[in-house]
Amino acid sequence: MYKVFTVILLLFIGVSSATRSFNTPSNNLQRLTSDHRDKNVGFDICSTCIDEAVTVLNVLLQAILDEGIYATCGDLCGIVANKTSPFLGKVCDIACDAAGALEFIHLIVKADLDPIWYCEMAKMCEINDHGDAKFTNFGVYPNIGPQGTQFEIDCSFKSLNGTGTSMLRFIMADSHNQTSDNDFLIDAKKPGTYTEKIGLITASAWNCDPVKGLCDDFPVGTYNVTVQFCNGECGSHHPHSSTYDVGQAQFTVTKKK
So which residues are the signal peptide here (predicted)? Predict the structure, then answer.
């Protein structure tokens, strides 16, 4: 009876919260270069799992809201298999078994399962709790340019012990202190030095797609950029999550001639 009451209480707390997801990068941002020495099928599985995690977790939350408590992981994840695919149902099974059915339900209804940790529990993404990474030449180049300039944010890094499944969180603040968060998934790396650059295109207003209609010019002004390099999801309190490094820089967009 107590467990039933606990889950019902958590439902009222969690139903208003959406499952956390990666912040989709703006149309103005483009990942320019990345070192693919470690690119393999394992990372393809990991990125696929993360891409589908939000859909899966929302299916699970809706199932719990509709039907209440499920006694086993098999019962709960069977719904995922039926509504998505057998593969995603199996991923759900592994993650649920790792957490335990009741705890898994608690995490879902509290909207407290971030996609990377979920896929790590499902053994789809690599874990390295002893990893490290430091930016080697962080900055924005050039640091001043007219509207239409493509700025490059250098996020190249060096790791002595390798990294786990990670992310770069790009945060840009304008002169009015309005911010935009944009996330990029980074696969687990072996020790080494890696090139990682993000292009910021200022040909049109922030997040406006010229294909879909007319866009204003990119606003002139000075912008502050912060990039967090995190093991796991930035800001997560779950295991296998930490901040490797933080880079800060500034650039200025002037009026085009």
Answer: 1-18
